[in-house]
Each structure stands twice: as structure tokens, then as C-alpha cells.
């Protein structure tokens, strides 16, 4: 596995690969890799003949400087983990100046989907995500790129931008990977204290309870309110817990096919997100 730091070196490689008939699969990440990221790498088995994993903690998607500085980082450990998979050709780890040279002033806005849920909670976040993902897809010459369903809203925004900008890439959604107690894997989980980490399992458990209440005939509004209360009582600061339509992200008043629960809640100041479909 090569570690590539510059666009020029990456361009040379991907041009050669494409000329040789390779299909390039890409997994964009912000590092601090875990099994969820490795599932994205594995999801490209049989779909790509070359794999690139990018690691770049993207400053423009953080609307809070402290959150950016505290975001976990560790390129050496990431490289070792990727090497062990035996599946990755390139770890692309550009510096900030490589991605955003002086004078950089463009933003990709995916209007509508970017204003609700995490977009309302973190203004400007999805502009930063859409901009860096567009750049990464172009820089890597991706034919296929894998993204996790844990960031369901992000996935919808990426589908939209790829369609709207006619980017020649297939987006591969990959199901959320969870720990044994149900907590969705996330680099942010590393920042939880042992006590908070134990407490965090209440988040997915509450989503399940909420889905079960709706299935049992309780109204959507009552089920959501009950579960928000459960989370608050367990010490979470609930940013949102909502039932939305999966495609439009508009609020849903009936739990049925194509609707999904979305939650963002903080524990000890660490923001966790999750989502589960109504089945
Ligand atoms: O999901 C992430 O890790 C990031 O938002 C992404 C897609 C790598 C863009 O920085």
C-alpha cells in the first residue's frame, strides 16, 4: 500500500490505472479508522480492481473549532489497519494546503436536504462535506465510492450531488456496523469516557423502543416524545429525534415503508448520530 500525499502523485497513478482498464473504488474518510470503515473497504470486493482510502479531517465541515481540534487523529494506526486488510492500494492523505490552497473560495451546496436534521443543527456542515467529497471523487478518479448508512443524510446529499453534477461515479451505500451492545461505530466513540460509552448504548436501544411503540400503534408524535424523554433522563442532550421520509427527509406522520428514525444527541458534549428504518 502506498501513502500518497499530493494530487499530482495521485493523478499519475489513477491515470495509469484507468489506462490499464482498472476500476477505481474509493472510501473517503476522516481517519481514526474502525471496523465500520473496514466494512466500506470490504464492500468494494469484486466491484473495484484498485482501492483508495482517503484520510482527511476536513476543516470546512466543522462549524465548531473545538470540535475540529478534538476530532481524533492517528495516521500511523490508520495506515497499519488498512495495510492489514491486504485490500488497499493507496492511502491518500493530503495536507490542508493541498486540499485548500490559498485563495480557495468554492463551495458545493446541495440545497434543501442540507437544511434539516444535522444541517439545521450544524449550519454549513453539509456545504463542507459536499465540497470535499466532490473534490475527492474528482481527484481519485473514482468509478465507485462507498459511504456508510450511519450518515444517512450525508449519503442522500452525495447521491444528489453526483446526479446533479453528472459525476461518473456509482455511490455504494453500506449498512451501519454496530458494537455488540448496538452502538453504531463512529470515530467519535473514542472520545467517550468508559461510563459514557456504556451509557451510549441507550441511544440505539431507544430507537428500537420507539420503532416498536409505533409498530404497536402508538402515534408517531407520542412515541417520539416518549423516547426524547427517555434519552434526556439518561443524560443525553437531544438535538433531534424525528421520523422522516428516507428520500426527501421531510417529516413523516405515519410510520411505514420508506420512513426512518433519525437521532442526534450528545453525551458529555460528544455528539452521536444514528438512524434506523421502519420495517
Ligand atoms: O463521513 C465522513 O467521514 C466525512 O463526512 C467524509 C465523507 C469523509 C467527508 O469529509
TrEMBL record:
Transport found in the keyword field: no
Record GO terms (molecular function): ATP binding; pantoate-beta-alanine ligase activity
Alphabetical UniProt keywords: ATP-binding, Cytoplasm, Ligase, Nucleotide-binding, Pantothenate biosynthesis
Entry's Gene Ontology BP terms: pantothenate biosynthetic process
Gene Ontology cellular component list: cytosol
Pfam family, one: Pantoate_ligase
SUPFAM superfamilies linked: Nucleotidylyl transferase (SSF52374)
Main location: cytoplasm
Binding-site residues, ATP: 30-37, 148-151, 177, 185-188
UniProt keyword ATP-binding, yes or no: yes
UniProt pathway: Cofactor biosynthesis; (R)-pantothenate biosynthesis; (R)-pantothenate from (R)-pantoate and beta-alanine: step 1/1
Family annotation (Gene3D superfamilies): HUPs (3.40.50.620), Pantoate-beta-alanine ligase, C-terminal domain (3.30.1300.10)
Known catalytic reactions: (R)-pantoate + beta-alanine + ATP = (R)-pantothenate + AMP + diphosphate + H(+)
Subcellular location: Cytoplasm
Matching InterPro entries: Pantoate_ligase, Pantoate_ligase_C, Rossmann-like_a/b/a_fold
EC number(s) on file: 6.3.2.1
EC class of the enzyme, as a word: ligase
Domain of life: Bacteria
Active site as annotated: 37 (proton donor)
Binding residue positions for (R)-pantoate: 61, 154
Free-text function comment from the UniProt entry: Catalyzes the condensation of pantoate with beta-alanine in an ATP-dependent reaction via a pantoyl-adenylate intermediate.
Family per record: Belongs to the pantothenate synthetase family.
Note: The reaction proceeds by a bi uni uni bi ping pong mechanism.
Name this protein carries in UniProt: Pantothenate synthetase
Species of the source: Acetobacter garciniae
Amino acid at each position: 500500500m502506498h501513502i500518497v500525499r499530493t494530487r499530482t502523485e495521485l493523478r499519475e497513478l489513477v491515470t495509469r490505472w484507468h489506462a490499464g482498464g482498472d476500476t477505481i473504488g474509493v472510501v473517503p474518510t476522516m481517519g481514526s479508522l474502525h471496523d465500520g470503515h473496514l466494512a466500506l473497504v470490504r464492500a468494494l470486493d469484486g466491484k473495484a480492481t484498485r482501492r483508495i482510502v482517503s484520510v482527511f479531517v476536513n476543516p470546512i465541515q466543522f462549524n465548531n473549532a473545538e470540535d475540529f481540534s478534538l476530532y481524533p487523529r492517528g495516521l500511523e494506526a490508520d495506515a497499519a489497519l488498512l495495510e492489514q486488510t491486504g485490500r488497499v492500494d493507496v492511502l491518500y492523505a493530503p495536507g490542508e494546503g493541498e486540499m485548500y490552497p490559498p485563495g480557495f473560495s468554492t463551495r458545493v451546496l446541495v440545497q434543501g436536504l442540507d437544511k434539516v436534521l444535522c444541517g439545521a443543527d450544524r449550519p454549513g456542515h453539509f456545504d463542507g462535506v459536499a465540497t470535499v467529497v466532490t473534490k475527492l471523487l474528482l481527484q481519485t478518479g473514482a468509478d465507485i465510492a462507498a459511504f456508510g448508512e450511519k450518515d444517512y443524510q450525508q449519503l442522500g446529499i452525495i447521491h444528489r450531488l453526483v446526479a446533479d453534477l453528472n459525476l461518473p461515479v456509482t455511490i455504494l451505500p453500506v449498512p451501519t456496523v454496530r458494537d455488540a451492545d448496538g452502538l453504531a461505530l463512529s470515530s467519535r466513540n473514542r472520545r467517550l469516557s468508559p461510563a459514557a460509552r456504556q451509557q451510549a448504548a441507550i441511544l440505539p436501544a431507544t430507537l428500537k423502543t420507539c420503532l416498536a411503540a409505533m409498530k404497536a400503534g402508538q402515534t408517531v408524535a407520542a412515541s417520539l416524545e416518549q423516547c426524547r424523554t427517555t434519552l434526556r433522563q439518561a443524560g443525553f442532550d437531544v438535538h433531534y429525534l424525528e421520523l422522516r421520509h428516507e428520500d426527501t427527509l421531510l417529516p413523516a406522520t405515519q410510520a411505514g415503508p420508506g420512513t426512518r428514525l433519525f437521532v442526534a444527541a450528545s453525551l458529555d458534549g460528544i455528539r452521536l448520530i444514528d438512524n434506523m428504518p421502519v420495517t
